[in-house]
Amino acid sequence: MAAAVSTETVNITVNDIELVVPKGELVVEAVKRLGLEIPIFCYHPRLKPVGMCRMCLVEVGFKQPDGTVRKMPKPQAGCTLPVSEGMAVYTDTDAVKRDRKGVLEFLLANHPLDCPICDRGGECPLQNNTLAYGPSTSRFVEMKRHLPKAYPLSQYVTLDLERCIQCGRCVRFTEEISGDSQLAFRFRGASMQPSTFQLTDFESKFSGNVIEICPVGALTSAKYRFRARPWDLQTSPGICTVTPCGTNIWFDHRSGKFVRVNGRTNEGVNEEWTCDRTKFGHDFYNAADRLATPFRRDGEAFNAASWSEASQAVLAAFADGGEGVAVLVSPTLSNESLFMTQRLVRDTFKTNNIDFRPSGGLAWSERLENKYGLDPVGGTIADLEHAGSILVFGASLADEQPMTFLRVRKAWFSHGARVVVAHEVATEADSFADVVLRYNPGSAAVVAAGLRQLLAKVEGKFTPEHVESVSGVPADKLRAAAASLGENGAVVTTRRLAKPAAEILAVAAHETGRTFLHMGPHANTEGAAALGALPDTLPGGVKAETAGLDTKGILDAAAAGKLKALWLVGVDAFSLGDRDLVSRALENVETLVVTDYRPTESAEYASWLLPLALPAEQDGTYTSSERRVQHMGAILQAPGEARAQWQVAQELAARSGAAPVFSTSEVRSLIDSVAPDYASLTMAKVIDGGELLPRRGQSPHDLEKLAQTLGGL
Amino acid sequence: MSFDVFRDVAKPIVSGFGITARRLKADKVTVQYPEERREQFPRTRWRHVLTRYDSGLERCIGCSLCAGACPAKCIYVEAAENTDEARFSPGERYSHRYEINMLRCIFCGYCQDACPTGAIVLRQDFELANYEREDFIYTKEMLLEPIR
Questions:
Q1: Distance from B146 to chain A by nearest Cα, in Å?
Q2: CB distance B115 to B62 below 8 Å
Q3: Which residues between 78 and 117 in chain B have a beta carbon less than 8 angstroms from any beta carbon of chain A?
Q4: With contact defined as beta carbons under 8 Å apart, do A683 and A359 qualify?
Q5: Rounded Cα gap, residues A419 and A532, in angstroms
Q6: In order of start, what are the domains of chain A with their CATH numbers?
Q7: b/e map of A205-219 (b: 16 or more CB within 10 Å)?
Q8: Given A193, A443, B78, B113, which is the most exposed site by the fewest CB atoms within 10 A?
Q9: What are A251's strand-pairing partners?
Q10: How much is the pLDDT for A423?
């Protein structure tokens, strides 16, 4: 949070009402302070003003010394005009109304009136403004222009050129926000058209946003095409669970079926944007092969069974199984589901064999917070906006952390942050990076050590020349990167970066007073780690007395026939890598229970197949990669008898004698009793925009252990 | 006493029959339904019909404006896209599913007002009784006018 700064203000009048506003604010924003609205098309609060559509025309004058107002001879565009002392703005004079009618008449001269079949109809700014400010009839009798309709700009975005009013919002979005500059205007004047260069595909990781900001139906979603009209849809607030960002979304559904996703404003996370994985990646809710009842394997066939039978069978195989049973859980389950599952595993199954990580996760004592007392997620996405310099290391942010990518880019675009990108391959962030460090695969740790040596000004063997010989990063570039990073800022990396590099970066960030962000790859990675879905960690980050097997250990033990029973909760084991090991593991387990929303490849090996309710079909909270806990209520109904994992886990626990748990709020109070971080949250805040888990705080210790790590390179 | 009986009982009965007797001369208003049916007014609003163009193509474009205008929320529309192989209506879009719940319908005719192509119209067929509740869900096939 920035300290309160004194802002220079000016006195203006809006419709003769006196108002004090910050100097330089645009007229179109200033009038909002009075609750007034100036109709707009091309203006967007998050984009630079261009004044292309002329919809925001207002009358502007200046107070004269004798107290009268001398109006400018012509109307002014409110979206490009900053306020100044003594300005008098008029938004509802007869002249302004006439101007608006004129502008709309011109915009509609060529706009086809195919509103009934247009996907934007019903939520269209052009419709709304025409209704509110426009003429009731048109005087144009000439033929309208005819251009290609339903031109597929990409697999997600459909362009209807006839409907375009040339506001340039989409073009400016790709230039200013997403940074891929994929769209541009072809031709000039009346024949201007938004399009990609050379008519190639519109390849962007954020292309869905242009659909939402298009003020007409020119850019529409190929997936939502003709699926519903806005008034058919019910809209519920939700959280994206396919990306780790915790993107806030509107979940549009019709007759209990998911239809589409729109961005929901949360200034702390996604502002109002979504990435394409979020916007177009939720179709699995409508998968044709959703499981609706538990299935039991009888020979080659799966036969429907009841939950009661399934619970008995699972309990028979797992209860008190000790070292002979194991559970793999998905880090996209809710906090409640993960917590109840680990409680079941520890209390009822009497084992610590539970893991959510694909493979090669760090042991308790190897994790940053325990080894060095450093906070692995020491800042927020929103913090990045005002970081003076940002080092993006070993991550393709646009793929892995899309909302963090947009914030890093905004820091550069709007606040002039210097960005250094270090990665093995080219990434989107290279386009705005001050310095790009392209290192050889496997040499990330050496580059990190070299950077640390330059930034923290310590002595060591990782001189730029040494780094160049190992990683192929020119010594000059490394020096330039260190110079560009300056004295403070932020370091962003993801959990995909191998251990030594992340460790070195964390220590370097601590030594130079930078914010360090080590971001997890899934919707609830942080929650799974904090709530004990790990073999050696109990809820609250407490070290377990005896460590269980991790994912690799579980698969190895299963393949060696040492496991009696294995339960995959929302995990397709074949996605964990090494298909040979996985298939041997699944074959050699006596009882394999698979819980998933649809039959996965692992399900073919299952003894029991249990239906899983998806995130939007249950009440739950999720901890995003910046450790923001957010809530999503049950929006849809789960098909048939599909249940949330916490319900399944609580039923098994209750059947073996534990006190039953009836709701997610009860689960949350159980969580609060063992995880102090979560106990400090207020549910009202979690629901309204999410609340950050308290920072662990830096309590650095054993930093000299880094020498050992460095020595091993 | 006897005068009161005459005034309060006998006289109203006689004058009442008088009205009946006078009406005997006038034309009959009752019709022998179902053998004979009264002619409906031209703008009567009864059973819905989805009309076609003269070409045989459906007028309905699946815009769902009728569903939006419906105060009883009894119309359900699902649209789909025409292809050159399967063309139902002239433009890009047609109604893939069109259902009216006749139990909910209040025959206000707002759907007809809202329709931009004049596809949904309320016609004069008023005999809508049925035996099963499910049978009151009129599907697109039932509503669509046969090709002339």
A1: 24
A2: no
A3: 78-81, 91-93, 116-117
A4: no
A5: 35
A6: 230-286 (2.20.25), 295-365+525-692 (3.40.50.740), 376-519 (3.40.228.10)
A7: bbbbbbbbbbbbbbb
A8: B113
A9: A236, A261
A10: 96
Nearest alpha carbon to residue B72 among B114, B103, B115, B116: B103
Q: Does B62 touch chain A (CB under 8 A)?
A: yes
The DSSP secondary structure of A112-143, one letter per residue, reads ---GGG-TTTTS-HHHHHHHHHS-SS----SP
Rounded to a whole number, what is the distance in Å from the CA of B57 to chain A's nearest CA?
Answer: 16
Size of interface A-B (CB pairs under 8 A): 41
Let me know how many helices (H) and strands (E) chain B has, helices first: 5, 5
The three-class DSSP label of residue A50 is coil
B110-128 pLDDT, tens digit per residue, is 999 999 999 999 999 999 9
Any B CB within 8 A of A232 CB = yes
Burial per residue of A456-481, b for 16 or more beta-carbon CB atoms within 10 angstroms, e otherwise: eeeeeebebebbbebbebeeebbebb
CA A344, A348, A349, A350 torsion-angle sign: positive
Contact A74, A106 (CB under 8 A): no
Is the separation of the CB atoms in A408 and A379 below 8 Å? no
Q: What is the mean pLDDT of each run of 10 residues along chain A (713 residues)?
A: 70 94 94 94 95 94 92 95 95 95 94 93 95 92 90 94 95 95 92 91 94 96 95 96 96 95 95 95 95 94 96 95 95 96 96 89 88 91 94 94 96 95 95 95 94 92 94 95 93 90 93 93 94 94 92 94 95 91 95 96 95 96 96 95 96 95 96 94 94 85 87 83
The pair of structure tokens assigned to A48 is: 């630079």
- Which residues, including other chains, have CB under 8 Å from residue A619's CB and lie 6 or more apart? A336, A631, A632, A633, A634, A644, A663, A664
Is A227 an interface residue toward B (CB < 8 Å)?
yes
Kindly give the interhelix angle for A307-318 and A645-655, rounded to the nearest 10 degrees.
70
Record the pTM. Answer: 0.92
C-beta atoms surrounding B31 within 10 Å: 11
**Preferred mutation among A118, A223, A229 to probe B, highest tally of B CBs within 10 A:** A229
3-state SS record for A163-221: HCCCCCHHHHHHHHHCCCCCEEEECCHHHCEEEEHHHCCCCCCCCHHHHHHCCCCCEEE
B21, two tokens: 């007797």
Q: Which amino acid is at A69?
A: V
Chain B CB within 8 Å of residue A496 CB: no
- Residues A229, B117: C-beta atoms closer than 8 Å: no
Q: Which residue has the tokens 């046969």?
A: B146
What is the rounded CA–CA span in Å between residue A644 and residue A665? 14
Tokens of A272: 């109002």
Contact call for B64 and A229, based on CB within 8 A: yes
B89 → chain A, closest CA residue: A117
pLDDT at B1: 61
**Do A114 and B117 count as a contact with CB atoms less than 8 A apart?**
no
Rounded to whole angstroms, the Cα distance separating A67 from A64 reads 5
Q: Name the residue in chain A with its Cα closest to that of B77.
A: A228
Which among B64, B93, B117 has CB closest to A232?
A: B64
Q: Which domains does chain B have, with CATH numbers?
A: 48-143 (3.30.70.3270)
Spatial contact of B102 and B142, defined as CB atoms under 8 Å apart: no
pLDDT at A1: 41
**What 3-state class would DSSP assign to A608?**
strand
Cβ pair A121:B63 closer than 8 A: yes
Helix (H) or strand (E) holding A592: strand A591-596
pLDDT of residue A701: 86
